[in-house]
Amino acid sequence: MGPVSYAAAVEVVLASGPDRAVLTVLADDAAPAEPVDVTAEQLPGRVADLEARHSPRWVWPDTARVYPRLLAAGVRVGRCHDLRLGRAILDPTHAAQPHEAAHDVHQPTLLDELTAQLDPVEAVAEHARQRTAVTAAPEPGRLRLLLAAESAGALTAAEMSHDGLPWDRNEHDRILTGLLGPRPQPGRRPAVLEDLARQIRHHLAAASLNPDSPAELLRALNAAGVEVRTTRKWELAQIEHPAVAPLLEYKKLARLLSANGWAWLDEWVRPVAGEQGRFHPEYVVGGVVTGRWATSGGGALQLPKQVRGAVVADPGWRLVVADAAQLEPRVLAAMAGDERMAEAARGADLYQGLVDQGIVDTRAHAKVAMLGALYGATSGEAGRLMPRLLRAYPRATGVVEDAARAGERGETVRTWLGRTSPEPPLSWRDAQHRASAEDAGADEVRRARQLVRDWGRFTRNFVVQGTAAEWALCWMADLRGRLRALGGSGTWPGPAGPAGPIGPIGPHLVFFLHDEVVVHTPEELADDVATAVQEAAVGAGRLLFGTFPAEFPLDVAVVRSYAEVG
DNA sequence: AATGCACGCCAC
DNA sequence: AAACGTGGCGTGCATT
């Protein structure tokens, strides 16, 4: 078989045959070309060749299964359409779960993993079905953008997982040792924790107390006359007792040790060279109902501020850290077309803007009120302040109030680009049904009302959190393109290379968390990267909201260590 | 010994 | 100060 050559190729469907990968080239205004079989060994080279000559959109069943293999072979692509993610958005109730094929009875072969076991004819047909579904949708343009952004996210996620977050293992050890004392033998408490435990036992007169056991701790506290119902830190913090201070300190440090201690470092940070390592979380694109990413492995969704000092750029490199300021309220103003709230958001600090418009008296109140509106607060300070927003910004708050009412009725809601919220579970409908029966008990009625309010808060937040996730996807996709233009698509020699860190030779994304990105870049390009991050944010705002005057300011920092931020 | 759940805390 | 959305995950403890 000679090299594939199609002047007008725009899309290549990658699927699996009986013992081969199958490439089907779809050219503009032409029937699908004859499928081309390639072996697993040939595939990366063939993909690289087509990518270099045609920059096609790769259409494949599951980026999370296909792309890591290509990345391992040193091959990167510009764009793709992920059929699994596309199906999940277009048909949420019938979407396949990720990695479904992994549960097949037979052992997956390398080719299975490369192509996720979707027959080429079926893959082409599914692709056509998805295109048709988009065209028939009420807002095809928005949906097309969402699918493109989701797939770009899938590429970015795989690349970030592959490249890893730069991690200084010695610095992490210094942080731990400074707070906990030297690394103890396995199964032993570090010295500082042991000392705190001794103090706690002394003050509670409980000689054998294990402070790690909530049940024992609660009993010991009550026996010592401390009237708490739980051992949560906020409840303990209100108590005046000599045991409280060491106990709170113990909880903080015990958490650090168990979540991001030496065991975590051993398990999750892969050594690269010298002190340098890489943390390789797995991002799960679309893993959250709202469209946010989830992660699995190493707790990447919750890297505590305490250990961020261990995130350190390689020598001669920098981290460009950027986060979108008050993203969700800004997204709400834009999707609602609320000019007055957008005006309050004109400056760098939206919350101060609310104060300046006379809605609330302090920035802290503005934040509490706004988050209360987004989350559906009903009590406390947030519940008291939120009505002011209803009066001041009826359009913006109307969007979340309407979403809440729809959820309370058991209806689905949609994000700006068209991601649909899930249906309430059957148990929810059952509860409503039972509560409306004539012989319904008071408990049943109360419980059903509770469930109604809960689901309303979910759909309320869904529209904003989901649209913010869409903005972030577009931001990242735009940024990825700009970084590639700055030289981020080449890689070091690879695993077989003689020395030096393995990874992209130019600026590349290394971390993403809802409204924040980190780029690892050669020092001399850091300013260009900072500019690219800003331009990408402007681009994302335009993509989603066109000419509506919404601003999405960023906090951007060029640093050696993640701890220098915030 | 393996599994599932509740708790509690971290992140945005 | 606590209740007000989305998650991951380690630990203790009960169940199987």
Features:
566 residues, 4-stranded antiparallel beta sheet, DNA-binding, alpha+beta, Alpha-Beta Plaits, 21 helices
CA radius of gyration:
26 Å
**Helical proportion?**
40-55%
CATH topology of the largest domain: Alpha-Beta Plaits
CATH class of the largest domain: Alpha Beta
**Count of all domains:** 4
Shape: globular
Number of helices: 21
First-to-last CA distance:
56 Å
| Oligomer kind | single chain
CATH architecture grouping of the largest domain: 2-Layer Sandwich
User: What share of residues are in beta strands?
Assistant: 5-15%
Rounded mean pLDDT is 90
Give a short account of the largest sheet.
5 strands, mixed
- Widest beta sheet: strand line-up: 3-2-1-4-5
Q: How many strand units?
A: 14
In terms of structural class, how would the helical and strand content be classed? alpha+beta
Low-confidence stretches: 1-5, 97-111, 493-500
Question: Topology, please?
Answer:
Blueprint: E1 9-16, E2 21-27, E3 36-38, H1 43-54, E4 57-60, H2 63-72, E5 79-82, H3 83-90, H4 110-115, H5 120-136, H6 140-163, E6 165-168, H7 169-180, H8 191-204, H9 214-223, H10 233-236, H11 244-260, H12 262-268, E7 269-273, E8 276-279, E9 282-284, E10 294-296, E11 317-324, H13 327-336, H14 339-344, H15 350-356, H16 363-375, H17 380-392, H18 394-408, H19 426-435, H20 442-485, E12 508-512, E13 516-522, H21 526-545, E14 554-559
Parallel strand pairs: 1-4, 4-5
Antiparallel strand pairs: 1-2, 2-3, 6-8, 7-8, 9-10, 11-13, 11-14, 12-13
Helix pairs in contact: 2-6, 3-5, 6-20, 8-11, 11-12, 13-18, 13-20, 15-16, 16-17, 17-18, 18-20, 19-20, 20-21
The protein binds a DNA duplex (12 and 16 nucleotides) through residues 210, 212-216, 230-234, 237-238, 251-252, 254-255, 258-260, 287-290, 292-306, 323, 327-328, 371-372, 374-383, 457-458, 460-462, 464-465, 513-516.
